[in-house]
Amino acid sequence: QDVAVLEYRAPHLAAASLAFAFPAPPAGARLLDVACGTGLVARELHRRGFRCLHGVDGSAGMLERARSTGLYRQLQRCVLGQEPLPVPPEHYDAVTVVGALGEGQVPSAAVPELLRVTKPGGFLCLTTRSNPSNLRYKAELEAALEKLERQRAWQKVLAQEVERWERATSEEESTQGTGYISGVVYIYRKCPVPPLEEG
Q: How far apart are CA 123 and CA 85, in angstroms?
């Protein structure tokens, strides 16, 4: 209810970006929704043909709400940053973290753990906010993302800054007095990326 009032667009933007990046129809793709909350991202992914959704979240209450949507095949409790994901390596075709990469939430140091559970050639979709109180975290996060790119752990597919991410909760947080804060969607593809098939 709170995010509806804030016109929170991250789940829609992230799902649309991921669906655009995917080379094949996603119905068979296995996807992990990290910090899944009540299932807002699952709803958007489901609308775009993703059917094999697994979720993890640190809150038992959020997981109950996510379970009630009927959109997830599997849900587990996990506090990312304090413990590893309860998942074998190279298990998922895609991993999303939408709305949890921010000050006081999932630390940027947890990003390699997301890569660990992604198949080679799989996609990772991450979002963060660009409002003033999150700029230090965003700079830290982008340094971590770029370091992994330099190490050829993944390739950047997209980094899209979006102006009207959600309504600002205070004038100080508002982007240039618009009443909104901005945010970013990042899509990366884990290396090695499979070669394009001939034909």
A: 17
